[in-house]
Amino acid sequence: MTKRLTVIAALSMTLFLGAAQVQAASTGPVKNIVLVHGAFVDGSGWKSVADILRKHGYIVSIVQPPETSLDDDVAATNHVLDQQDGPAVLVGHSYGGAIITEAGNNPHVERLVYVAALQPDAGESAGQLLASKPAISNDIASTKDGFLFISPARFHDDFAADVPRSETDIMAVSQVFPSVKAISAVIASPAWRSKPSYAIVATDDHAINPDLEREMFRRSHSTTTEIKASHAVYISQPRAVAKVIEAAADGQ
Fold it and tell me: How much is the pTM?
């Protein structure tokens, strides 16, 4: 009987120590960074940010959400999150903010970063937020089958005015068209209500009203940084964006 109690006690201590180690890992610095692009662009725009983070020792993954529906985009993000070896910081730009708000409930996600991004609450959609405080520009058109795009002639000024035209010209003609279905889907369970969030306001943003960004980030009590940049702040100011992501990874 005494031997049996000794074994049980040893097993209990092992489980306790294992749980303590997991808890310690989840509250300390995070080395896995998962980046999610927003509407009209693809994951290649994260290259400069990813290069900086990798140079500083982070393990970076980039999600390619199809933007066919919010459910599809969350599923694509979970596919990448489920491959992470340990906790991760989940980063979203623009409509990608709506994606990470739902996908952030994945148990691998430790903290969230919103980069000039939408940050819906439960029952809100990306489209609803955009309509609540319109941006400076309104050059978005719809295809006959329910997808959205920015007029290529207006892409530079509307989306990335501080990025060289040599880069935005190819972005304008290689857009990822988000579906109206994706933009109008409502959030069920916002992860920022239970996990720490960080945010960047792009003060010269013409695609999302900077005042809307400030309003959302105040509501969520996100640790917020303002950067003088266009909506494409992650392309034009990669070092500043990487600095915020690293602060989130360190839990600062």
Answer: 0.89
